[in-house]
């Protein structure tokens, strides 16, 4: 039985003016000359070929390696957007369709996202942003471990769903990020918690001392770029601090306190100033 969207070991049964035909169906499956090896294929030779459908929905074979196979998750680029859905590049001549109903968030042309590849009711390959079904739990993980992940959606409370290493379910709580992260973004994260259901809690924030030091440098540079003063201090609203410095108010206050202890800044009700040396 032919496995659509996957590699099959098939035999060359005849040659035509446009390519070779492989066994697997009554009429054979076309392997066009442009999709073959550079050498001539022999009748009876076994070929490891990827099978999908062409623009006329006929089974077609290729020896090229696609970016994704059926029932897998892949990071693919949106090539076009229509009223009915989008098309994503998976490395072959024909792009894969993503129906509107299979888009859990708005896709943007030219951006990459994680997609799950499946066979639709019409027996064509299709893609969906609903990748949770294909992700696993992380059984071998170390707290504090640094890794990477790709954002693939939102929870109702504003937390981000993230595929850790592209394979495992993870979450970034809404109080763990302060920059504008969105689906498709690849981020460096640190494992912070392992939940009972196997989901991994991660954070893009660095260790406290490291993050505090980086924030102090950011504050000093902001002051230098603005004539040595700013209207922000430890009384500034959390929303403003998040917008200007991509930080929590707590970390901002700690960073200001550290700079004051180093005798680098002063604060008053009007804001913060550099101390001139």
Automatic annotation (TrEMBL):
Gene3D superfamilies named in the record: Nucleic acid-binding proteins, Winged helix-like DNA-binding domain superfamily/Winged helix DNA-binding domain
Chain ranges of the S1 motif domain: 144-205
GO molecular function per UniProt: DNA binding
SUPFAM superfamilies: Nucleic acid-binding proteins (SSF50249)
Keywords carried by this UniProt record: DNA-binding
Keyword Magnesium tagged: no
Cross-referenced Pfam families: S1_2, WHD_CvfB
InterPro entries documented for this protein: CvfB_fam, CvfB_S1_st, CvfB_WH, NA-bd_OB-fold, S1_domain, WH-like_DNA-bd_sf
Membership in a protein family: Belongs to the CvfB family.
Protein name: DNA-binding protein
Organism: Clostridium manihotivorum
């Amino acid at each position: 039985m032919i496995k659509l969207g996957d590699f099959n070991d098939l035999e060359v049964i005849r040659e035509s003016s446009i390519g070779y035909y492989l066994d697997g169906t009554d009429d054979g499956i076309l392997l066009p000359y442009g999709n073959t090896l550079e050498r001539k294929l022999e009748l009876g030779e076994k070929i490891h070929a990827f099978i999908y459908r062409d623009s006329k929905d006929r089974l077609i074979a290729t020896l090229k390696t696609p970016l994704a196979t059926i029932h897998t998750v892949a990071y693919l680029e949106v090539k076009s957007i229509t009223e009915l859905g989008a098309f994503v590049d998976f490395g072959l001549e024909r792009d894969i369709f993503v129906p509107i109903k299979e888009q859990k968030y708005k896709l943007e042309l030219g951006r990459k996202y994680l997609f799950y590849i499946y066979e639709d009711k019409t027996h064509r390959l299709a893609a969906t942003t609903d990748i949770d079904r294909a992700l696993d739990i992380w059984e071998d993980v170390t707290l504090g471990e640094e890794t990477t992940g790709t954002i693939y959606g939102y929870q109702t409370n504003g937390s981000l769903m993230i595929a850790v290493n592209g394979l495992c379910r993870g979450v970034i709580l809404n109080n763990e990020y302060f920059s504008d992260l969105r689906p498709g973004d690849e981020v460096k994260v640190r494992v912070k918690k392992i939940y009972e259901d196997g989901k991994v809690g991660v954070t893009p924030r660095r260790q406290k001392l490291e993050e505090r030091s980086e924030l102090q440098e950011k504050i000093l540079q902001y002051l230098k770029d603005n004539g040595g003063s700013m209207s922000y201090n430890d009384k500034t609203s959390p929303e403003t601090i998040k917008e200007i410095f991509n930080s929590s108010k707590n970390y901002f206050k700690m960073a200001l306190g550290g700079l004051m202890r180093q005798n680098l800044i002063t604060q008053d009700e009007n804001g913060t100033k550099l101390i001139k040396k």
